[in-house]
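Good day; I would like, with your permission, to put a structural problem before you. What I wish to show you is a protein chain and, alongside it, a tokenised description of its three-dimensional fold. Thank you for your consideration; the sequence and its tokens are set out here:
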Amino acid sequence: MDNTNILLLDRFMRGETSPEEEQQLLLWFRDVDAQEDILTFYRQHWHEASDKELSEDVQLRMFHQLKTKIRSESIAIKKTRKFEKRWFIRWGQYAAAIILCVVVGITSHLYTRQSVPVAKEYQVEAEKGQRASVMLPDGTKVWLNSHTQISYNSNYGMKDRIVALVGEAYFEVAKDKDHRFIVKTGEMEVEALGTSFNVKAYKEDRDVIATLFTGSIRATAGSHSVILSPDQQVCFNRIEDDLKVDSPENVVYASMWRDNELAFKGETLNDIAIRLNRLYNVHIEFKSEKIKQFRFSGVIKNNSLDNVFEIISLTSPIMYESLGDTIVLSERQ
């Protein structure tokens, strides 16, 4: 076996050969004994790497990269040196022989080089005052509330289907029994299979809340883990490090934001102000601390900002004034 040319071929696969060395390879490929040397070399490495798995996707990607490399190098040689047409045709034949041998030995070669592609991250974001929706590669539908971001890697679905969430989102998960669907919020993970649920996990909130509408989900936070049934809600308290399951009377409230409706359940004006800041990107100023503790319950369907405060002022002793991107709340005298 001609070790010099075998090593040269190995360098060619890594893209480290010069035009002169590639011409040397061409001459070697014309030798009828060369193909047998190449096959022997890669058979040996194939057996040495037989216990190492490599996904079909990676193998195909390497195969196509090699074809592209050979094609580009052959074109470059043709431009820089005036070969005869029959020489170029022979090059294509030798290139085909290389590809055949490399496909046989691609697993060994790739592991030797330790060339593992790095997963890319994709992000979808809805800024304050906006909402967004996206369909994930597996067909899962996600609706993002204001001031929310989700991210997932390019290897999504190859093993688990993992999505990172900051903010609030509603999920309709595509059924796939072989690949778990997991939403990570930092402190709590929500796992689902063929289900619809809402997760609220804003960084500034004390609680991370997951609400289940159909199917089932498993919520995990540290050593705590619970399984939810439809119309149940799990709440993780970041301060107390506690996980609780509840069956709220109006569970549908958790998803009303998708239909541009606002639902409040005895929330203070201070908490409502935080939500409105996300939804409308406005600053809310309180003239007194007392006003912050006023509470409001109800559903507001026509949720223009003025309409929201008009309805709240009907049940709370407050007045509001709009000054640009600031809303000033004061107590009604």
User: Anything to note?
Assistant: The first helix runs from residue 3 to 13.
